[in-house]
Write a structure and sequence with these properties.
With about 350 residues, the protein is an alpha/beta fold. It has helices at about 25-40, 65-70, 85-90, 110-120, 130-140, 185-195, 240-245, 260-265, 295-305, 310-325, 330-340, and strands spanning about 5, 10, 15-20, 45-50, 65, 75-80, 95-100, 120-125, 145, 170-175, 200-205, 225-230, 245-250, 270-275, 290. The protein folds into two domains: about 5-150 and about 325-340, Glycogen Phosphorylase B (Rossmann fold, 3-Layer(aba) Sandwich), CATH 3.40.50; about 170-325, Rossmann fold (3-Layer(aba) Sandwich), CATH 3.40.50.2000. The strands form three sheets. The protein has a seven-stranded parallel β-sheet, with helices on both faces. It has a six-stranded parallel β-sheet with strand order 12-11-10-13-14-15, sandwiched between helices. It has a two-stranded antiparallel ribbon with strand order 1-2. Helix 4 links the parallel strand 7 (about 95-100) and strand 8 (about 120-125).
Length: about 350
């Protein structure tokens, strides 16, 4: 195995991850962004899938390979996050293996955690919440390799780019993947529906992909607010949806790192969210309003932001500054430090 020196730092030359596919999902975006940051540092980073198809939804500057090709030229460090390929991961001829926890409660979590305790597999976690969860539930120590944000894609709109709501209307946006109840789309709808009794409210649901999931409004959906649905939004234009809104709401559960919440913050939008996947950057009353995962608490927090323009502007500004601390370059530094430890 070769190594290279760049910026005065000895970098691992061979790091790879095996994943089932490169479809548009948050976990896959993580490896693309992380791979670009590592490649910029001179690290040879490979994403291996069964077909070795390059992603068509964003630029990826690292290497792709089939899993069989990678097996013939194994990496020094191998990563995996999917329990479905965990057996293959264990059998892979790599010098060191690390399971990167992206979400809790995988089907084989007991087995994976036991391998972490024994030292058979190194443990990485994509957020402070995941680190704490592994320690509390399994007494497993995981190195934090927290999520990031691409500040070249997510930043506040210029005035000429925005598409604000009509005068007097308040625009709220949330995740629109109703097929996954953990996203909390129904909770947001119930909360905002009650608010629409008092004011002209527009509720926008959006999603970047419908691949593998039925996205969109369910047949029984009812909401008093005006409802807008945007699906299959190109990743390089989604900031227009964030930036043209007054508030972003996340009622998620079971998240490791909430990509959409930090994306909204990076676009200068005030945020109401649960603690799920947000503990690294959402600080109650400072950068966001943190709520319990039910429609009553969500409604109360959103109403505060509807009625207090100063609070909304303050949270948006502080959230923007906080989001800027989480560049993917920092995530790459954390990964390199963890695999050398």
């Amino acid at each position: 195995m070769r190594e290279t020196v760049q910026r005065g730092v000895m970098a691992q030359r061979d790091i790879a991850v095996i994943i089932p596919h490169l479809g548009l999902y948050g976990g896959n975006l993580r490896y693309i962004e992380l791979g670009n940051a590592l490649t910029a540092r001179g690290v040879d980073f490979t994403i291996a899938t069964p077909e070795a198809t390059r992603p068509d939804y964003m630029d990826y500057r690292g290497r792709v390979a089939t899993i069989d090709e990678l097996r013939q030229d194994p990496p020094r460090v191998l990563l995996a996050s999917e329990q479905g390929i965990y057996s293959e991961f264990l059998e892979f001829p790599a010098e060191r293996r690390y399971f990167y926890w992206i979400i809790p409660k995988t089907a084989r979590e007991d087995e994976i955690a036991a391998d972490g305790r024994s030292g058979r597999v190194g443990m990485l976690a994509n957020s402070r919440g995941m680190v704490d969860w592994l320690q509390k539930k399994y007494r497993v120590r995981a190195s934090p390799v927290v999520g990031g944000i691409n500040l070249d894609l997510f930043y506040p709109l210029r005035p000429e780019e925005a598409h604000p709501a009509p005068p007097g209307r308040f625009r709220i946006i949330a995740n629109g993947r109703f097929s996954r109840r953990r996203k909390g789309s129904r909770i947001v709808a119930r909360a905002v529906g009650a608010l629409a009794k008092r004011r002209d409210v527009e509720l926008g649901f959006f999603d970047q992909s419908t691949t593998g999931h039925t996205a969109g409004l369910p047949p029984e959906f009812r909401c008093r607010a005006r409802v807008r649905l945007d699906l299959n939004i190109p990743r390089d234009t989604i900031r227009t949806i964030y930036g043209s809104s007054d508030v972003f709401v996340s009622a998620e559960k079971g998240a490791g790192w909430s990509n959409q919440t930090i994306e909204a913050m990076a676009c200068g939008v005030a945020v109401v969210c649960t603690r799920s996947g947000t503990q690294d950057f959402a600080i109650h009353e400072e950068t966001a309003l943190l709520v319990r995962r039910n429609s009553w608490h969500v409604r109360r927090a959103v109403r505060r932001l509807m009625e207090d323009d100063g609070l909304r502007r303050r949270l948006a500004a502080a959230g923007l500054e906080k989001a800027r601390e989480f560049r993917w370059e920092n995530t790459a530094d954390q990964l390199l430090a963890a695999v050398r430890a």
